[in-house]
Each structure stands twice: as structure tokens, then as C-alpha cells.
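Recall from the previous lesson that a structure prediction takes nothing but the amino acid sequence as input. Here we apply that procedure to Helix-turn-helix transcriptional regulator from Streptomyces mooreae. The sequence below is the only information supplied.
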Amino acid sequence: MVNRKELDPEGSPGERFGQRLRALRDERGWTQDELGSRMGYSGTHISAVETGRRPPTPHFAASADKAFGTGDKFERQERAVRQTALIEGFPEYVTHEARAAEIRLYEVGVIPGLLQTPEYAATLEADAVRREAITPEQADERVELVARRQAALVRSPSPLIAAVLDEGCIRRSMGPPAIMSAQFARLLEFAERPNTVLQVAPFTMGARRPFSLPITVLTMPDRSLMSYAESTQRGHLERESLFVLPILTAYHQLQAEALSQAASVAMIEQLRKGTS
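The prediction returns the following C-alpha cells.
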């Protein structure tokens, strides 16, 4: 089969679910469309779950058990997927982020993953473990994902990355001064790249800030648009340009109101001095 993606049964819970789904489908000689017809889903949906681009839902897992006659094995495996470190919707977003020609992001409270140092990321997740929000294993998974996402963007041509950070992102200390000093250095290095823009949205913007939650807008190689936003429990990937365009317009307004890159760099340099 041409361009058949190899699956890693030792990977994430979502990848293990997809690998088992494909293995049983292959055993029966069914195409993705045939399995989809038996389960009440499209062949495209089956493909997305098999390759880990789309997480299975409880209904999907129950339908798979019924189609294959596997009792509740897929349902139990789906529960393991939901218990992973990544919130619903995020794994699918990451696959698009890795291919995007342009990435525009706005973050609140913490340095965004694409700009984090490994030490900052580890400190952030260690606090989540302390609060018993995630397990140590899930913390390791999140830190590893930060590294993989950053590595995926080291390619040619380089994607444009515009990052607007709420002032709270750089004011909030994360670990000892040495970690913050290194993180500030990473931000300053990011700002010097030819394919990046870094700005700080100061507290003084007040009501002029168009977003209250983090948001990301992706421009894909074919110039189509996607946006991604998340709450505490789940993320939402919007693919309809009609709905993404107003978000992109608001992002441009945010950039116009935020500090210039020069002023943002000066603020970060001043904060870095306080950590040395």
C-alpha cells in the first residue's frame, strides 16, 4: 500500500489504539471504508484514528468492539487514551502544527511550549505532578512532546512564527532564577531569528486585549487557515476559514496594540538582569 504510515505499538495510548484497530482490520481483509461502514463512520475517520491524528471517543470504541466482536477491549483501551497527558484535540492539532507555513500564537500565564527550554517545561509539569493533576509518567510525556514539537519546526523553508505573550507569561517565575534566566535567553534568541516575531501584550492593554484565552492560528502550505483554542479539559481545532478569519483579524489587532518587538525584547532583557 502506498504511503502507509508505520504505527508504533509502543508509542502513546492513542497510537496503540490505532495500531490494534488496523491490525484487526487487516486480519479481516477490510478496507477503511468497509470498517467505517460497519461502525457508522467514514473511511477518513477510521484512517485518522488509526494513525493517531484523531483520538477515539467512547462511542467509537464501543462501535469497534461491536464490529470486531472484541467484548469491551477497545472501550478499555479508549479509557487509557483519555487518561493520557494530552487533552482531547491537542494530538490532532500537533500534526497540523508540524506542517504549517505560518504559526501565530497568543499565550497567557506561561511561556508557550514552542518557546520553552527543557528545564522550564520540566518545572512546569513537576508542579502539575505535585498538584496530582497528572502522573510523573504523563509529565515526562508532555516534556518529550515539547521537544518533538520544537524539532518538527526546524525545517526548510522555515515556518513564520509570530508569538504574542501576555505580560504574565514573563512575570510568572517558574523554578529558581537560573531556570528563568535561561528561559529569557531562549526568548531573546527566538526574537533574533529571521522567521520570527516576538511581542509582549502588556497589562496596560486592559480591555483592548481581544483574547482572554490562548489561541493559535495556523496557515497551511495551501494557504488554508486553522485555529486552535482550548479550555481546561479539551481543545478545539477549527478548520472552516469562515470562522478562522475573524480570529486572524483580532490577532492582527492584538499585534498592533502589543509592544513592538524592540520594546518587548527590552522588557525581557530587564527581567533577565533580575535573575542573574
